[in-house]
C-alpha cells in the first residue's frame, strides 16, 4: 500500500466512522434531554416515547430499502443523500416548538440515517480489500458505533444544562456539513447495479411496524381492550404476515428471508435485536428516574453513564481477541449474559439508593454491550457473499434498531401498566379519590400534559407518584433481564462452533438473491 493510498483509506474510514458515530449517538443523546423536553413542550411519557420512536421506527422500517436504493443508484450517492437529510432533520428538530414538529423532524432524521447506514459498511468493504485490514477497519467502525450509543448521555447532559435541549440536535449540524464535504472528496463512487425496489414490501413492513409500536405505546393509556388498540394488533398480524409471504415470492426481495435458514446468522441477528431491546429500553427510562425521581441535573445524570462508556471502550479490543481465539460465540453469549445481569441487578435498587451502590450494574452492562457489537457484525458478514453485503449490513442495523424500538415500546408498556396499578393502590392508602389516581397516571402516560410542566404536587402525593414510577421501572428492568437471559441460552445453541479459528468458510446452499444478482 502506498503512502497516499494509505492516507486516502484512513480518511475514508474516518469519514464513515464519524457519520456512523453521529447516527448512533442520536439514538441515545436525546434520552438525557427527555425530561427537559417534557417540561418545555408540556408532554408526558408517551409523548416522549414518540420523540424517541419517531426516529427509531422510521430508521428500522427504511433501512432495508436504503440498502436496495444504494445498490440501484450507487451506495456513495445514497450515503451522501442520507447524510444531507439527517443534517437537515437535526436542524429542524432543534427549531421545533411543539411535540408534533419535533417528532416529524426526528422522522426526517430517521430517513437520513436509514439511507446512510447500509452504505457505510458496504463502502468500507470496498475500500479495504485485504482481509486483515478489513477486519481491523470493521472492528474500529463497530467500536465507534458502540461508543456513539454509550457516550451520548455523557456529552448530552452538560449540553442540556448549558444550552437547553435543542443543543443535542444542533451538535449534528456542523458534523454533518463536514461529513458531506469529506464524503464528496474521499469516498469512492461505487457503480450502481440494476435492482428492483420492493415498494410493496416497504409499505407492508412500515405499516405493520407502525401499527405494532402505536398499539404498544398507546395501549396503557387507552386500555388494551380499546377498539383502536385491538385494531392495531390485528393490523400488525395481517400486515407482517403479508410482508413475509411477499418476500418469499420475490426474486429480489427487500429482505432475503431464505438466508435465515443459516442458524449462525439467526443467532447473530437475534443477539443484536435483544441486546438493543434490553439496553435501549433501560437507557430511555433511566434518565427519567434520575432527573424526575432523584432530581439530578442533566449533567449529573449524563456523567452517571461514564463507567458504562469506559467499559464499552475497554471491551471492544477484548472482544476482538476473543473472536480471534474462540470465534464469535463466546463474546456474544458472555456479553448478553452480562447485560442480563446488569439489568437485573439495577432493578434491586430503589429511589433512595446511592450511586456507588449500583455502579457495578452500569459497568456490567457496558462490558456486555462492548463484547457483543463487533462479533455480531463479523459473524453476519462471514455468512454472506460480497453481492449481499449491502443487504447484510442493512439487516444487522435493522434488527438492532427494531430491537430498540420494541424495547422502548414493550418495556414502556410494562412500566406504564405497573405505574397505573401502583398509583391506584398508593392513592387509595392516602384516601385520594380513584379518579385523581387515574388522572395522575394519565399524566405520566402523556395525555394530560405531564412531564413536570404542571404545578408542584403535595409531598405525600409526589412520594406516591415517584414510588409508583420506580415500581414500574423495576418490573420493566426485570422483564428485560429475563428476555436477555433466555436469549443467551438460545444464541449459545444457535452459534455452536461458528467461526472458530480453523473452521472452513461456510457456503450456504440456497442463495436465490445472489443468483439473481449474477
TrEMBL record:
Locations listed in the record: Cell membrane
Family matches, as Gene3D superfamilies: MFS general substrate transporter like domains, Multidrug resistance protein D
Stretches assigned to the Major facilitator superfamily (MFS) profile domain: 12-499
Membrane topology designation: Multi-pass membrane protein
Entry-linked Pfam families: MFS_1
Record-annotated membrane-spanning stretches: 12-34, 54-71, 78-96, 108-128, 135-156, 162-187, 199-217, 229-251, 263-289, 301-320, 332-352, 358-381, 402-420, 475-495
CDD domains tied to this protein: MFS_MMR_MDR_like (cd17321)
InterPro entries, A to Z: EmrB-like, MFS, MFS_dom, MFS_trans_sf
Keywords, ordered alphabetically: Antibiotic resistance, Cell membrane, Membrane, Transmembrane, Transmembrane helix, Transport
Claim: Transcription is one of the keywords in the record: no
Main location: membrane
Family: Belongs to the major facilitator superfamily. EmrB family.
Protein's UniProt name: MFS transporter
Species name: Kitasatospora cinereorecta
Amino acid at each position: 500500500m502506498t503512502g497516499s493510498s494509505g492516507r486516502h483509506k484512513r480518511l475514508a474510514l474516518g469519514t464513515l466512522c464519524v457519520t456512523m458515530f453521529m447516527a448512533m449517538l442520536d439514538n441515545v443523546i436525546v434520552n438525557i434531554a427527555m425530561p427537559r423536553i417534557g417540561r418545555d413542550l408540556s408532554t408526558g411519557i408517551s409523548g416522549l416515547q414518540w420523540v424517541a420512536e419517531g426516529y427509531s421506527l422510521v430508521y428500522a422500517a427504511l433501512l432495508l430499502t436504503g440498502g436496495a436504493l444504494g445498490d440501484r443508484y450507487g451506495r456513495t450517492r445514497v450515503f451522501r443523500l442520507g447524510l444531507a437529510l439527517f443534517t437537515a432533520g437535526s436542524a429542524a428538530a432543534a427549531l421545533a416548538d411543539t411535540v408534533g414538529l419535533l417528532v416529524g423532524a426526528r422522522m426526517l432524521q430517521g430517513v437520513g440515517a436509514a439511507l446512510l447506514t447500509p452504505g457505510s459498511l458496504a463502502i468500507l468493504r470496498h475500500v479495504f480489500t485485504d482481509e486483515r485490514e478489513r477486519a481491523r477497519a470493521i472492528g474500529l467502525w463497530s467500536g465507534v458505533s458502540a461508543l456513539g450509543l454509550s457516550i451520548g448521555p455523557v456529552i448530552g447532559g452538560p449540553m442540556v444544562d448549558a444550552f437547553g435541549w435543542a443543543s443535542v440536535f444542533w451538535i449534528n449540524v456542523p458534523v454533518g456539513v463536514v461529513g458531506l464535504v469529506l464524503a464528496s472528496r474521499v469516498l469512492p463512487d461505487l457503480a450502481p447495479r440494476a435492482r428492483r425496489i420492493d415498494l410493496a414490501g416497504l409499505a407492508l413492513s412500515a405499516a405493520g411496524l407502525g401499527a405494532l409500536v402505536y398499539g404498544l405505546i398507546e395501549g396503557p393509556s387507552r386500555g388494551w381492550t380499546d377498539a383502536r388498540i385491538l385494531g392495531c394488533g390485528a393490523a400488525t398480524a395481517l400486515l407482517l404476515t403479508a410482508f413475509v409471504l411477499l418476500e418469499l415470492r420475490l426474486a429480489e426481495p427487500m429482505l432475503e428471508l431464505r438466508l435465515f435458514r443459516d442458524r449462525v446468522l439467526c443467532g447473530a441477528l437475534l443477539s443484536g435485536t435483544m441486546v438493543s431491546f434490553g439496553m435501549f429500553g433501560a437507557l430511555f427510562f433511566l434518565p427519567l428516574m434520575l432527573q424526575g425521581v432523584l432530581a439530578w441535573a442533566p449533567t449529573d445524570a449524563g456523567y452517571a453513564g461514564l463507567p458504562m462508556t469506559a467499559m464499552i471502550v475497554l471491551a471492544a479490543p477484548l472482544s476482538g481477541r476473543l473472536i480471534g481465539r474462540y470465534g464469535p460465540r463466546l463474546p456474544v453469549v458472555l456479553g448478553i449474559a452480562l447485560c442480563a445481569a446488569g439489568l437485573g441487578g439495577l432493578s434491586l435498587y430503589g429511589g433512595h439508593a446511592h450511586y456507588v451502590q449500583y455502579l457495578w450494574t452500569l459497568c456490567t452492562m457496558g462490558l456486555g454491550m462492548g463484547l457483543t457489537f463487533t462479533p455480531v457484525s463479523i459473524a453476519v458478514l462471514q455468512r454472506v457473499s460480497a453481492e449481499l453485503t449491502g443487504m447484510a449490513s442493512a439487516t444487522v442495523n435493522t434488527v438492532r434498531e427494531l430491537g430498540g424500538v420494541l424495547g422502548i415500546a414493550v418495556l414502556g408498556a410494562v412500566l406504564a401498566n405497573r405505574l397505573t396499578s401502583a398509583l391506584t393502590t398508593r392513592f387509595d392508602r392516602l384516601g385520594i379519590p380513584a379518579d385523581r389516581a387515574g388522572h395522575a397516571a394519565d399524566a405520566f402516560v402523556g395525555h394530560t400534559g405531564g412531564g413536570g410542566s404542571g404545578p408542584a404536587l403535595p409531598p405525600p402525593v409526589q412520594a406516591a407518584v415517584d414510588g409508583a414510577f420506580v415500581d414500574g421501572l423495576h418490573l420493566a428492568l426485570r422483564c428485560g433481564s429475563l428476555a436477555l437471559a433466555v436469549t443467551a441460552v438460545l444464541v449459545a445453541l444457535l452459534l455452536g462452533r461458528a467461526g472458530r479459528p480453523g473452521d472452513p468458510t461456510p457456503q450456504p446452499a440456497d442463495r436465490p438473491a445472489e443468483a439473481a444478482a449474477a
